[in-house]
Amino acid sequence: MSIEPSPPKPEIEALLAENRTFPPSAAFAAQANAKKDLYDEAEKDFEAFWARVARERVDWAEPFTTTLEWDLPFAKWFGGGKLNMSYNCVDRHVERGLGSKVAYHWIGEPGDTRTITYADLHREVQKAANALTELGIRTGDRVAIYMPMIPELPIAMLACARLGAPHTVVFGGFSAEALAGRINDAEAKLVITADGGWRKGKPAELKPAVDTALAETPSVRHVLVVRRLGDRAPACVMAEGRDVWWHDIVERQAPECPPVPVDSEHMLYLLYTSGTTAKPKVIIHTTAGYLVGTSLTHEMIFDVKPDDVYWCAADVGWVTGHSYIVYGPLANATTGVMYEGTPDTPGWDRWWQIVEDFKVTILYCAPTAIRAFMKQGEALPAKHDLSSLRVLGSVGEPINPEAWLWYHENIGRGNAPIVDTWWQTETGMILITPLPGVTATKPGSATFPFPGIAADVVDGDGASVPLGGGGYLVLNRPWPAMLRGIYGDPARYRETYWSRFPGMYFAGDGAKRDAEGYYWLLGRVDDVMNVSGHRISTIEVESALVDHKAVAEAAVVGKNDPLTGQAIFAFAILRAGREPSEQLGRELREHVAQVIGPIARPKFLLFTPDLPKTRSGKIMRRLLRDIAEGRTLGDTTTLADASVVEAIREHSGSAEEE
Ligand code: 7RM
């Protein structure tokens, strides 16, 4: 790691030290699940805290005998315990009389809907688990899942968990090549997929990509295929003896399949980290600690009550979907919303229509979505009744203060607390976040570590940086939902996360703390630019650009520069109704210079209609750097929409240089 943290610079402090503070309302605080004493309890004895939570929240087949065995960097939580994840997410709720409670209100992109109750889930998960057994799946076998956002996706995950067969979910948008790599890494025996799904008003076939991938995946015996598109999937060909329709095999199964109790540390799933680095890592999550961590954070951070309608608008293929669409919410018997399609179909108010129709009370989404809505203007959300919303969440990237305020005013109507939640595929659960009703928020800050979590900001030598300064974000003690390693590569696990600062987990993110101890996430440390020896993080410049009223979204990268080492290359997406012009280019540069300082003025500026992103909305700056440098593009298998980079590249000649 060559980049050292920047010393605090007064001009950057100006951007981060948001003066606006939003204290919780007395009314919200009075009814909140989380109380301040949660921090106190956890601080007194964090192991005792997690043990208490684990006893209360989990239905154990056999109780655990040890809370934590910590052989740095390998953790074992709740040793001696046995449990089943699907039992905890489904059966126990039905047994307690919640069978008719809705687990998911599902909305297909074309407008079809399905209502899945806990009793429905109970039946369907057991039938699916019996079908997996018939297809040869046993405890410990890996199953790859490559599906659109349809109810069979969580059902398939829970069916795997019922048998103790770890799943690896691959985004439906990824290519055949990416799918083949993931199947081979996991040596999956079975692939669960669909003929396709609806995306942007059109049927999008999936099965042909599976067929291509399977030419190179010797471990796969069978493919289980859900019919979603039917006649609209003409290329869906079933291979005799290998491929089986879901409705043929699942429907005829008995609706009883006893859950297999597994050890606390039994592998629940494998998941690739999002493609912001060149070589993806396969992250291991296990059962009990993950259940404890995701269910507690879900209930406290989103203030979930029995009558809430909770919508996490992520894709299930992202860790956010695993933890906060499937396992956390179902463990809490929550009623959720699940939507198949994109936010712009049939119009840019699709989400607001869903909120209105289903009276959604809690919405959790990514800043990239919020900025896309900002670009479309205030009129669209204003047309809808969003008064049911009472908590809003953000995840995936630092949220610019501008987008935070827009979300607060136009979606939360000024009175729904916003929880900006920092975490990673590796952490499994939210780690830095406000607790609504407890924490006074500041737009752009993820605020404080969750109870029981020990975070710090350290300098290049691992020494804690005093409040007011910036450096590297680290975690100083294990937490229940933490990754248990990188699949098949313990050395890389140690090297990637535990060697930069001995004894600490290095998250790879930069962070600052203000004078009051609030955490401000600054993005990945490899996204830091070095201009004439000044270290400037990409989010700082991006926030300054988005702060200008003409800009909806921005990305900046460092471009090699003979004079200054790196020069700032900015990509800007304008809001609806604004046109690119030289004049506007000058104005934007001037704006950045004013907000941050002349050193941060972009040397190159390109107006672009779109940005290359992962499916979870993270900007792939690696590809923007390739574009800025005029290089051939690196690995694009995790790109949500491959045509975007080509479109930007065509324009890139027109980048204005100052
Ligand atoms: C949940 C998820 C992890 C990386 C992480 C950060 C960035 C996520 C926030 C954030 C600032 C946030 N998992 N990140 N949440 N940065 N504020 N609230 O995103 O594995 O896909 O990505 O995402 O850089 O290291 S992930």
**What is the CATH superfamily classification of the largest domain?**
ANL, N-terminal domain
Strand percentage, roughly? 15-25%
Mean pLDDT, to the nearest integer, reads 93
Instruction: Tell me the distance between the termini.
Output: 31 Å
Question: How much helical structure, as a percent, in the residues?
Answer: 25-40%
Structural class: alpha/beta
Tell me which CATH architecture of the largest domain applies here.
3-Layer(aba) Sandwich
CATH class of the largest domain: Alpha Beta
For the record, the count of structural domains works out to 3
Which descriptor suits the 3D outline? globular
The count of β-strands is 31
Q: What integer value in Å does the Rg equal?
A: 24 Å
CATH fold call of the largest domain: Rossmann fold
If helices are DSSP runs of H or I spanning 4 or more residues, what is the number of helices? 21
User: What hetero molecules are bound to the protein chains?
Assistant: 5'-O-(acetylsulfamoyl)adenosine
Task: Report the uncertain regions.
Answer: 1-12
Strand order of the largest sheet: 12-11-8-6-7-14-15-23
